[in-house]
Amino acid sequence: MYFRVDVRSGDVQPVSDVAARPPIAPWPAPGANARRTITSEERTLSVLEGEPGDAARKKTVWQFTVPGSGAGWIPWRVVQGNTVTYAWREEVPGQRYQYREIVRAMDTTSGKVLWERVGPYHDPPGAAAVGADQLVVDQDGEVVFLETKTGRVVRRIAKTEEAFAVASPRPGQLWVAAGNVIECIDEGSAKTVWRTSKQGELLWLLPIPGGDDWLVKTAKQTIRMRAADGRQLWSAPSTSASRPLVSGDRIYEGTLVVKDAHRRAEMTVVARDLRSGKALREYALGPYEGFFDSASVAVVDARDGWVEVAAEFIVLD
Q: What is the largest distance, in Å, between two alpha-carbon atoms of the chain?
């Protein structure tokens, strides 16, 4: 379903289509060697090298097949220079439906295993490089920083929520969202630059034009944050899971509230002041009857006094 909303009068027009934006990553990915990427298929890891954006001409420079004949899969893998670290998830021998993860670091030049750690599996899996020498891995109840060459634990961040994400909004810095905190790490020194709190899973990180501030969207909040020191200029409750849209001095967020045991839903657009975070106006798109699943409401464009909204959900009569 598609709508156009007049932000001055509040009039809503159902339309047949809107100018959908191309897919955008939820947050800036950590920096890496753009010429080198790593993939996995079934039991085999492959490191590819070539010009960024030219997948057809990339060449396989290293390949490794996880030994053994038992079933399993690779939930994450990271390449740092000549070191590949990966997790192999398999059933615990003799314990049906019980799984473990074997994390290994390998030297791609010699083919030797540098270190190995065996522990319980964790979902959803997550790991990322911290500069050239460290690795950050999500686990149950904590996030751990490992020395890439040795596997030594150099830091732990305890967490009471399952949320985990790694982003790089500024060059040379890494934001690690661990449970209810975001910790900014300097990639060169691996030291903490700042630490701030949040509520809910990190969903989106959007740059605010004209400076170094970022819009931080979680499952419970919308926050305007300063990248230099982590200072929160404002924070507002928000349960929308959709990507906010920054337009001029306004922020637009699409929301969908499911009620009456999934028998009815109300769709709205909330307009906020970019400087203060204050909700300025709420535009109702109308109630809808039926069973709603996999639902989302997103503002995809703003121009000429209108905002365009795309809504997607499954309705079962």
A: 68
pLDDT tens string 155-188: 999 998 889 999 999 888 999 999 999 999 998 8
Residue 117 and residue 85 in contact, taking contact as beta carbons nearer than 8 Å: no
Residue 81 vs residues 22, 58, 85, 149, 202: alpha-carbon distances, Å: 32, 17, 11, 11, 29
Q: Provide the 10 A C-beta neighbour count for residue 58.
A: 19
Task: Indicate the pTM of the whole model.
Answer: 0.86
Give the ranges where 182-250 is alpha helix by DSSP (H): none
Residue among 51, 45, 46, 49 nearest 59 (CA):
49
Q: Write out pLDDT tens, residues 65-92.
A: 998 878 899 999 999 999 999 999 999 9
Cα(259)–Cα(238) distance, integer angstroms: 17
- Tell me which H or E stretch contains 300: strand 291-303
For residue 142, list its beta bridge partners. Answer: 139, 158
**What is the Rg, in whole angstroms, of the alpha carbon atoms belonging to the chain?**
22
